[in-house]
Specification:
The complex is a heterodimer of chains A (401) and B (237).
Chain A: H1 30-71, H2 78-100, H3 107-125, H4 137-148, H5 154-174, H6 180-257, H7 266-284, H8 292-306, E1 310-316, H9 324-339, E2 344-351, E3 355-363, E4 382-388, E5 392-400
Parallel strand pairs in A: 1-2
Antiparallel strand pairs in A: 2-3, 3-5, 4-5
Chain B: E1 15-20, H1 24-35, E2 40-46, H2 49-55, E3 61-65, E4 67-68, E5 71-72, H3 74-82, E6 86-91, H4 96-104, E7 109-112, H5 116-128, H6 136-143, H7 155-167, H8 170-177, H9 181-194, H10 203-214, H11 224-230
Helix pairs in contact in B: 4-6, 6-7, 7-8, 7-9, 8-9
Classes of the chains: A alpha+beta (401), B alpha/beta (237).
Chain lengths: 401, 237
């Protein structure tokens, strides 16, 4: 400090005021927590999706296709059975890729298509091959339901399976395969091919929910920790500044008490005014974690004070979270004017949820305007006023939501 | 109690002031400020409001430090205001909440200690005539009042308060708003009068309101809602 010219209020030996390098947060970012949780849930869900898509396509290719080809002309309408197979294979590839790429699927049309295929294949397969592997919809279709409805509520899957069961039962009845053995086969086939997909679907949904919850908790914990760290840092920094300003104040008071300095001396009066202003500013800082805007302005005020300005900084209310460019548009014209101020300055911030007004008043003096008029920001959300009236120079920035 | 319970200040006689503060150096300082104004005379000083008022029951205005021996004396302030004492609070606690709480409790005016010298004499004189005086710090607290039940201020009133808070110069506010200084003061004072409806009723609030109507600052029909509130226990002229 002693090395700096123009600084009269601290005696030699006191060290320089470190310019704050405080990390500040905009408070806990709830959106961030949610995004983090969703990302974790997606990642942990990915394994299950790959499994579902693989099972559906491999089963379709390795078990369904050979059976259909082997049955050949014994099918009532082979073209329909084979064509439906090709259609579902294409649908599976399309849906599988979309699913693995996190792209949205149109679940309703795809599900409807699968149900149409279900009915068509049952109708085209014929009585003799009803329970054979050539009726591939028995085994495979439930897995495609799974792929198409991934991430949807489980009752939709159950509804699809119910429709599938109804189709199968209608086919069994219409084909006249109603003796006990056939009904038992139909039930077994349906149960055997549906239970595993349902288990996978429910299990994956539960795991995803769990990991989302865990990730949200972890992210929230981290945000709280970061905020606490910033608060501790702010506290520490204020402690240091208090020590420094207390020393400056006690020095001037001691000098006065011992009669070393003359209270009528303007220099001494300025020392008193600065020490008092500085203590006042410190006392006025009631926020645990400074809002970045206030932090910026306080840093500018400290800097101006080191240049010998007596400065008052009064804040009313706390600003809402602001985009960086808004913050810049609010603070920059002020810090520019402040850098050029002489003698004294009054910096005020009035904040509400939808409005923040920052103002700097300094004594006017001869000379050119020091603040350029910065280009209007794109949205016109921050207005900037500058005027001088012979008494004061007045810079004001105002942001409206 | 009645607004008339506030003893009228006799014209020609200096306004009697009592100073309550627990720091003798502050008392001496305030006394020195007030000594520059012949229309004011300090009748008694001390650190206990009751004792000071026993010594000078005829005091027209009490300058009260809001923190006495480490305690905020908002309750004492409310008691004095309810009893019709014109209390001007001055405090180093210039955070908005404290200022608004002091207004709610019935303080006629609030001065932050650091703005004392410039505004102290004017505040005491206005207080003695039951006229509002809004120093810049209080203007800031009013314009930034976040409470949901805060008085509804007009745009001009808000703007005048804001600019007055920022610049501390009514002349500059007048130039900026392209109105006269007198009109600036009217906007600011009207906003202050609206605050007489906030918090519990007090004789001092009723007196401020009555004087504002008398002066033509507000019309009775404009303030019906808060007149009826502030005057639950008294008719207002």
């Amino acid at each position: 400090m002693s090395a700096e010219p123009g600084t009269t209020f601290l005696s030699p030996g006191t060290r320089a005021v470190p310019l704050p390098t405080l990390r500040v947060t905009d408070g806990i970012d709830e959106g961030g927590v949610v995004r983090a949780a969703a990302a974790v849930a997606r990642t942990s869900d990915r394994g299950a999706r790959i499994a579902a898509v693989t099972i559906a396509l491999v089963w379709h290719l390795a078990i369904g296709l050979p059976a259909v080809l082997a049955a050949g002309s014994t099918l009532t309408v082979p073209e329909v059975v084979l064509g439906a197979w090709v259609l579902v294979a294409g649908l599976g590839v399309f849906a599988g890729i979309r699913l693995l790429r996190d792209a949205p699927l149109p679940p309703a049309p795809l599900a409807a298509l699968l149900l149409v295929v279900d009915v068509a294949v049952f109708a085209a397969v014929g009585r003799s091959l009803l329970f054979s592997p050539a009726n591939w919809v028995w085994g495979t279709l439930a897995w495609f339901f799974l792929v198409v409805l991934w991430g949807q509520p489980v009752h939709r899957l159950l509804a699809m399976l119910a429709a599938h069961a109804a189709t199968a039962l209608s086919a069994v009845v219409l084909y006249g395969a109603t003796d006990a053995a056939d009904l038992a086969r139909a039930t077994m086939a349906f149960y055997g091919t549906s239970s595993l997909p349902v288990a996978v679907f429910v299990g994956a949904a539960a795991l995803a929910a769990l990991s989302r919850e865990r990730a949200a908790t972890a992210a929230a914990t981290n945000a709280v920790l970061a905020e606490r760290e910033a608060a501790e840092q702010a506290q520490h920094e204020r402690g240091e500044r208090l020590e420094l300003v207390s020393r400056a104040a006690s020095e001037v008071l001691t000098d006065l008490a011992q009669g070393l300095v003359d209270p009528t001396d303007p220099q001494v009066q300025r020392r008193c005014v600065r020490a008092a202003a500085r203590l006042r500013r410190l006392i006025a800082e009631s926020d645990d974690v400074p809002h970045p805007l206030l932090h910026e302005l306080r840093a500018a005020a400290d800097l101006a004070e080191r240049n010998g300005i007596s400065i008052d900084l009064v804040t009313i209310g706390s600003p809402p979270p602001l985009p960086v460019w808004v913050r810049r548009s609010l603070a920059d014209p002020l810090t520019a004017s402040l850098a050029d101020a002489q003698d004294w300055a009054r910096l005020t911030v009035v904040s509400g949820p939808d409005e923040v007004v920052v103002s700097l008043v300094t004594p006017d003096r001869d000379g050119p305007d020091t603040t350029g008029h910065p280009a209007e920001d794109g949205d016109g959300q921050v207005e900037h006023l500058y005027e001088r009236d012979g008494n004061i120079r007045w810079t004001q920035t105002r942001w409206h939501r | 109690m009645d607004a008339d319970a506030l003893a009228p200040v006799t014209p020609g006689r200096p306004v009697g002031v009592a100073i309550v503060d627990d720091h003798p150096v502050v008392i001496d300082g305030v006394r020195a400020w007030l000594a520059t104004e012949p229309r004011l005379t300090v009748l008694a000083t001390g650190d206990n409001p009751d004792e000071v008022l026993r010594a000078a029951p005829e005091a027209d205005v009490i300058l009260l430090d809001l923190r006495l021996r480490g305690r905020l004396v908002l309750d004492k302030l409310a008691e004095l205001s309810a009893a019709g004492r014109r209390v001007v609070v001055y405090s180093e606690h210039s955070d908005p909440n404290t200022m608004l709480a002091a207004l709610d409790a019935g303080a006629v005016a609030f001065l932050a200690k650091h703005e004392g010298r410039e505004h102290c004499v004017a505040t005491v004189l206005d207080a003695a005539s039951d006229r509002p005086y809004v120093a810049p710090a209080l203007a800031g607290a009013m314009v930034g009042d976040p409470r949901p039940d805060r008085p509804v201020l007009s745009d001009k009133e808000r703007e005048a308060l804001l600019l007055w808070f920022q610049s501390m110069s009514k002349a500059s506010v007048a130039r900026r708003m392209r109105i006269s200084e007198h009109t600036v003061k009217q906007y600011v004072d009207r906003a202050r009068i609206k605050y007489t409806r906030a918090g519990r009723p007090a004789a001092t609030k009723a007196a401020l309101l009555a004087r504002a109507i008398e002066d033509g600052l507000v019309r009775p029909e404009e303030i019906g809602i808060y007149r009826s509130r502030a005057a639950t226990d008294q008719p207002t002229p």
